[in-house]
Amino acid sequence: MNILTLFVVIPVLTVIAILFSKDMKQTRLISAIGMGIQLILAGILVYSYLGMRKAGITDEFLFYFDALWFKTLNIHYTIGVDGISVAMIALTSIVVFAGVFASWTVETLHKEFFISLIVLASGVFGFFISLDLFTMFLFYEIAVIPMYLLIGIWGSGPKEYSAMKLTLMLMAGSALLFVAILGIYFYSAPAGGQLTFNLLEIAKNKIPIEMQRFLFPFAFIGFGILGALFPFHTWSPDGHASAPTAVSMLHAGVLMKLGGYGAFRVALYLLPEAAHEQAWIFLILTGISVVYGAFGAIAQKDLKYINAYSSVSHCGLVLFALLMLNQAAMNGAIIQMISHGLMTALFFALIGMIYGRTHTRIVSEMGGLMKIMPFLGVCWVIAGMASLGLPGLSGFVAEMTIFIGSFQHTDTFHRFMTILATTSIVVTAVYILRVVGALLLGPVKNDHFLELEDAKWYERLSTVTLILSIAAIGIAPLWLSDMIGFSLAPMVDKINSVTASIAGIF
Questions:
Q1: 311-324 average pLDDT score
Q2: Residue from 305, 439, 450 nearest 380 by CA
Q3: What is residue 215's predicted lDDT score, i.e. its pLDDT?
Q4: For tag attachment on the chain, is the N or C end more exposed, with fewer CB atoms within 10 Å?
């Protein structure tokens, strides 16, 4: 069996095993073992991929496999990975594994919770390995649909409202994507050729520029909604605030990355001429996302809302960098997806752990927690420093690469947008340092907090896994950057080679 197929099969087998578990202890153990195997498998995939590249194998996608699913429409189960896909699979494996331990105390409908969580993960894995547009869209829906149940049943606050708002917004995005995919499909073949959903085959053929202009907004906005593109981001803060801890971790850490990955793999790669013509429009929207999200975080008093608006800003930076359409900025965008996925998952895990003890997420009601919960306090500081871009952590690598790449454009428009986006660094530092001071330092405001205990073993395992990953990228980023860059170079060349005549518009 192809190693990539195992990333879909293992979650399915884990779900089946959970169905036969007898109690909560068995359910947690099966989930941990299943996702632990998935994490090990991701490590093997990264090692094997790097080894094959080192051995001189230059195929665009490795571990390629193709099987016909539906002959009439030429739908195939086509899978393969490049360096970008491998990085996203590794991110997903780490976050899902940490999410299982962050959900260790879930008691209500525990079987159903872990089944929904793992089904969501299987959809994400399937999305990242798919090279067939229809199959990719199918896995996309598998990843999105469980969110309604996970928030609506196990969430908090106005959970029904948040679940419905999230689902309706993402379904609207799915509708736009479906139009784009069908449009691409019907213009996917040369004259007299066979229509196909295969990404590699479509990329070889030039879709007429008139259709590209029509389809690009559908594709980019469809994926952009999941990536919290302004002004379609409003579902994100409410969804994050009402979701249980592990769901927030997967939602912000992994699911939102489908937006950036899909926008790059489908909208930019398959519709390159329209991307060059219309990029300036979406650069303005993503620039607003970056700055608005940062200022929105300053105004919040709830820890989850602070992190949710921070995610709007950081995910906006991903789309912003992709639209720069040069290798340095796009390389930074991919690293930013990995970095943000890890640090926002860490933030939401810590928020859940603190809320489980203090029963409040309001910053003004807390204080002095460092002396009561030193381990969680130190973890919070590390997460905050990664978010504001401290050298030695992943956030610095991602943001510096993005801004250097973005500033390579010499025209006034791109440089102005780049400078505007860099202001988010200062704003991020403001709200991070304010929260660290109010949450961890000063006097304890509630005597009840003095009786609280620090992190348990499963909480430590969850947070340490994420922190080590953040530090590994920050300290030694070249292996990741090179792995991504090798796969990115031919795609960037294609995007720019077919648009030489219009690349100087802005």
A1: 89
A2: 439
A3: 92
A4: N
Task: Give, in order, the Cα–Cα distances in Å from 237 to each of 186, 388, 444.
Answer: 37, 20, 28
Distance, CA of 137 to CA of 467 (rounded, Å):
32
Distance CA(94)–CA(469), nearest Å, equals 8
Displacement of CA 466 from its chain's centroid (Å)? 14
pLDDT tens digits for range 367-382: 888 888 889 889 989 9
* DSSP letter assigned to residue 354: H
pLDDT band at 42 (very low <50, low <70, confident <90, very high): very high
Q: What is the rounded CA–CA span in Å between residue 46 and residue 90?
A: 8
User: What would the pLDDT profile of 131-160 be if each residue is shown by its tens digit?
Assistant: 999 999 999 989 888 888 888 888 777 888
The model's pLDDT over 418-476, given as tens digits with 9 standing for 90+, comes to 999 888 888 988 888 888 888 888 888 777 888 888 878 888 888 898 899 899 988 98
Instruction: Tell me whether strands 62-70 and 75-81 are parallel, antiparallel or unpaired.
Output: antiparallel
Give the CA dihedral 338, 243, 378, 363, nearest 10 degrees: 130
Residue pair 329/492 in contact (Cβ under 8 Å)? The answer is no
Cβ atoms of 188 and 196 within 8 Å: the answer is yes
Domain ranges of the chain: 3-497
Contact 292, 237 (CB under 8 A): no
Q: Which amino acid is at 387?
A: S
- The total of other beta-carbon atoms located within 10 Å of residue 447's CB is 7
